[in-house]
Every structure is written in C-alpha cells, then in structure tokens.
C-alpha cells in the first residue's frame, strides 16, 4: 500500500495534514528528520506510516512507560502489529514480544530508552531488520528543556551502531538551544528539519488575577460548562493538590489527586481512571502529564504560575489534542512570583542554570502581564510570528486597561543600546533611575545620555515595562550568556517613533464579569444531538471496558461528533467519517449504526441533512442493516425472533421495517395489527402536527397518553408519508 492508501484504509483519514506527507516521503527515502510539531499536530503518523511501508520493525523510543500500553492498544485497534518492551512487562510478556520480533511479526515496537540501551537488546537489534528509529519527546535529551532524561543522552550511540537506519526525532516543545542539543546529541547534523509551527488555535488562553483561587476555579468550571469534561488542574505543591482535589469533590466534581508523594499504586490508579473514564478532573503537580495523550482533555487550569513559558505551553498543550475547542486558564498572583523566586534562590543549580531559570521566570511574568494578544506572545517566544491578534485569548476577547508606554519603552530601549546590550534588567533600571553604584561608575554609565532619564516611573513600573518588552519580543535575553538584553528587529519601529506601545496598567482586582466570555463550546449541538452524543459515548465506553482500553482508542470525540452531525445510516456512510478505518468499521461499525438507528427511532431523523419535509425526500434507500431485517421478515421471522438473532432491540427492528413501509416494500398491516379506525386516528393526529413534531413523534405519543409505543407510531407515520409522497399510487 502507498502512504496515501494507508492513511485512508488503515487510519480512516482523507488527507495528510501540514508537513506529514513530506516528512513521510523523506523518511521513506531513507532520510533523517527532526520534526517540531505542536501537540495534536499528528506527529505519530510521520513514523507510523513509514513503519508500515519500510521492511522490518520500527523502534519507537519513548520515556512514557505508563502510556506505552495504551499507545500500543490504539495501534492494535487499527489492526497494526505493535508491541512494547519496558520494565512494566512480566518476564513472560517480554519473552512473547521478543518471540514476535524474532519472527518478524511486528511493525512497531515501543521501547523505553533504558531498555534499548541494554547490551543484550542492542545485540538483538543488530540481527533484526530495522525500518527506522523514532525518538519521541526528543527534547528530553536536552538539559535546557524541562524534561531532561539522562538516559536520552545515551541515544547518541545510535548513529554509530546503526548508521544505515533512518532516525526521526520528534518533539512539540523545543526552543533554539534545545533544538541544537537534539541535533548534537542524536547526531542529526544531516537531518532535514521540519517545523510545523507551534500554534494551537483551538486552545483559548486566559490569565486572571488571583484572589480566591478556589472559587475562581469553580466559577471557571461552571461558567465554561465543563461539567462532564475531562480536565487537569495544576498546583505547585503536593499539599495544595490534596486540598484542591478534596475540595472539588465536596463541590460535586469527580476530582482525583496526583503527585510524587502519593503511594505509587494509588497514583497509577488515578492516572488510569483519568485515561479510561470520560469526566475525571486530575489535580496534579507537574509530575503529572508528560506526554498524556488523552485527546479529549477539555481544559487545563493553573492555580500557580508554571516555571517557564515552555512548561506552560507544554502543560496547556495537553488540552484539546483532538483539535476541538479547549480552555487554558490560569490564576496568577504576586505570591507566585515570590514563591518561585525563593525556590530559585534555594536551588542547588550553578549560576548559569539559575540565570536561565530566572530569565524563564521573567518571560512568563511578562506573559501574564500582556495587554496584547497572548497567543502572539507565546508564539513569539518560540520564534514564530503570528501576524494578527488571534481573537481567541482573553486579551483579544476583552481588552485590558493600558497606558501609553511608548516614551517609557523608547527610554528603556535606548538605555539597552547606550550601555552596549550587555546588561540585565536590574542594572538597566538602576541606570534609568539615575542610581550611582560601583558598577555603574566602573562602566562609566553615569555619563551616558539615558542615565537618570526615567525618574517618573517607580522601580516596579520599570521592571514591569521591561518584562513586557521581553514578552513582546522587542528585546531578547541572552540566555546562554549573562542574561544581557539585546535589541531585536522589532525594537526599531518603536525607537524611530513609528509605532506606539501600550502597557498594562497595574493589575487591579478584577470585577466579576462572567458573561463577557462566550462558552467555547465544541459544536452547536441541539438537545437531541446531545442525547445522541451521550448514547454514542456510552457505547464507546461499553466497548472500551470490554477490552480494558481507554475509550478514545475505539473512536475519538471528533469522530463521534461527526457521527452526530452526519448521522450515517449505513456502514458505507459510516466509513466516510474521519477516523473510521477499515478495521474499526469491521469491528465496531454495526455497534454504532445500531445506536444511530435507535436514536432515529426514538427521536426521529433530526439530522440537519434529513430534517426536511417527507415530500422532498424522494428516494429512500434501505440501510444495509434494514435490508437484512427486511429479508428475514420476508422469510417469515417475527420481530422478536429477528431481534434476538441480530442482537438488536425490537424497536430497532421496527425501525427497519418502517423504512421498508416508507419505501413501499411492505404494507403496514403486514407489520402491525391495528384496527382501521386506530390507524386513521393516529394518521389524523400526525397530520395535525407541524413537520418537526411529526419527526420527533413525542407530541403524538403524548396525545395518546403513551398508548401506542414509538415503534407503532413510526410505522404508521411511514405508511402516511408513503401516501403523501406517492398520491398517484393510491
Ligand atoms: P501528536 O503526537 O503530534 O501530539 P498525534 O499523532 O497524537 O499528535 O495526532 C493527534 C490527533 O490527530 C490524533 O487524533 C490523530 O489521529 C489525528 N490525526 C493525525 N493525522 C491526521 C490526519 N492527517 N487527518 C486527520 N486526523 C489526523
Ligand atoms: Zn489573542
């Protein structure tokens, strides 16, 4: 199969996204690659498809031992031959996997780096045909990153030991220094770099001033309609995690704690529930979530400031991997700054590291103080330019109070320039305020033109201004050097007076202003849509439980949503829904068609494409499922017998038969035993109703006080519609 065919038939997707196709072609040709793609961007296909095409097994290196089994299950659901090897397997399980490997029965093998590095395993690989190495979460190789894993640095032996096997490094977060580390440590100097951009347009960013964090969190959850959603709440300390989880529970939310101080089993259990159930809120320290690939996390809330913008981006990035709307919400206060500063001062790290950490802290503070689009700033931090404000963050949706800081910014920028672009914020503020300390005298900066020109602002205001300049990308900080500020290209128009700059005013307690935000609701579901959505989710959960896998490996939310919107009636129609590949269609297609059929029977066909008056519905074609029922009925089986044989509810069978009636293939009287007057009475009642009520049948059902059940009404309705449609026949 070609990569396009695999995409369609195995994964059920119609088109490649962004760079996927180029990356796959590059790897298929034996090339090496560094892939930077945001979470949810579709990195996995970039190695999974080549793994299926290239001969031999693809080795995927990942630090996420606890999630490997789910990743493997997800692949197996697509009918892909995958397995994993890590310390969590029993000896027998490991032996079985080795056997499969030896027999060439695997296309993908997930391994932990420490497992890969054992001499025995390396020797084993020497004699195995290898398709490629995929190094997932590649930023773990870098000390600058926030997830440094020493085992990852040993991967540098791969190019020496397996020089002909293509290597593919993938990550969602890597700033400049981290990217350089990945290339150096993994020997990817020849690799082609694919940068897909970092934007996560479906995530709505919001930062509020912290007052009463608990109640603010509760308001957020309720106002945004997160009842029933899965989400993550991050706190800095273990104690706070326990408290918030307990408190949310008392408020009627299903919240579970997760932190490194907990009993290992309990922690694992909570993570499992989060992955396996639909609406669990995990309250966690940052120990939780590295690579959590649950696609339908609908919100990430921070009750404390993360240590860096990368951490923030990574943590918030766990929301909305499925591409559907999601919230990233943070309550931030000055106490956070004090706490992090303390944590930094106490840290054992060397000076260079501390300098880097401090800079990172300043960047995230700047982000909190943004007056302009947060997404633009976040992307700028990763070196990406978003030309227009996003319209999907709080500052875009609800502009903040500002002051014209153009002149202050010009003074600050000139001061950076006059002192040689080598000094940090503290020093620059001292110069602006005209302080004469030893260092300033030594460098002769008490004689530069910007000395003492900033006395109209306080020290705090200058600090805030500098942070905003950093966050806005007007100056950059030399992280690897001495944290000196340097002017960037963006500073020019400001210095020349071609651009005005507005700075955020001192943050005042925010008035409660709930209704300004509209719910970032997924799609516009009607009430009946919601009922169908829940029914589909229930079916998915039932199938997942039966196999002990997370529900999303059966179908993603986005796939179920498409089912709600498109209302497929046949397996063929279902196959058109994104995410329904051949294998899943075979395994689960009928299960979901049944749910869809049941729904139509109960509520009528209320889908947008079918909500039309019956007369315009010219050629009804029996669904595959209805065809089978019809055949059985013609053979003389009763409704109950067919239902038992097909493991369907009798109501579904009636629904199929009503389709046949509407098509003119069956007479009403062949299906139900009612007196002529009764049929007329039902028909009259139907005809009195507007079209929607004819569709839902509810008011007709009520009019008879529930005397006729929906199956009967539906058949009579089909009979009626048949006559309306073809009056000439009568
Ligand atoms: P990443 O590893 O980059 O975070 P994944 O590989 O898990 O992202 O993909 C994110 C989601 O997007 C998954 O649900 C995946 O099935 C889906 N996806 C990936 N590629 C495509 C595509 N070409 N068309 C539709 N959906 C896709
Ligand atoms: Zn914005």
Total helix count?
Answer: 35
Calculate the terminal CA-CA distance, rounded to whole Å: 54 Å
Q: What is the helix fraction of residues, given as a range?
A: 40-55%
Q: How would you characterize the largest beta sheet? A: 7 strands, parallel
Uncertain residue segments: 507-522, 609-621
State mean pLDDT (0 to 100 scale).
86
* Radius of gyration, taken over Cα atoms and rounded to an integer in Å: 31 Å
Named CATH topology of the largest domain: Rossmann fold
The CATH class designation of the largest domain is Alpha Beta
Shape: globular
> Into which percentage range does the β-strand content fall?
5-15%
The CATH architecture of the largest domain: 3-Layer(aba) Sandwich
Give the total of domains.
5
CATH superfamily membership of the largest domain = P-loop containing nucleotide triphosphate hydrolases
Strand order of the largest sheet: 3-4-2-5-6-1-7
Strand tally is 17
Structural category is alpha/beta
Oligomeric category: single chain
Unique ligands: adenosine-5'-diphosphate, zinc ion
Brief rundown of the structure:
With 730 residues, this protein is α/β, with parallel strands linked by helices. The chain contains 35 helices and 17 strands.
Question: How is this structure best described in words?
Answer:
With 730 residues, the protein is an alpha/beta fold. The protein has 5 domains: 3-195, Rossmann fold (3-Layer(aba) Sandwich), CATH 3.40.50.300; 203-369, Rossmann fold; 402-504, Arc Repressor Mutant, subunit A (Orthogonal Bundle), CATH 1.10.10; 523-603, Orthogonal Bundle (DNA polymerase, domain 1); 624-725, no CATH class. It is 48% helix and 11% strand. The protein contains 35 helices and 17 strands. The strands form 4 sheets. A 7-stranded parallel sheet has the order 3-4-2-5-6-1-7, sandwiched between helices. Strands 8-13-12-9-11-10 form a 6-stranded parallel sheet, sandwiched between helices. Helix 5 links the parallel strand 3 (82-85) and strand 4. The longest helix is centred in the last third of the chain and has 22 residues, at 582-603. Residues 507-522 and 609-621 have low confidence and may be disordered. The structure holds adenosine-5'-diphosphate (ADP) and zinc ion (ZN). Residues 13, 15-17, 20, 37, 39-45, 293, 295, 321-322, 556, 578 line the site of adenosine-5'-diphosphate (ADP).
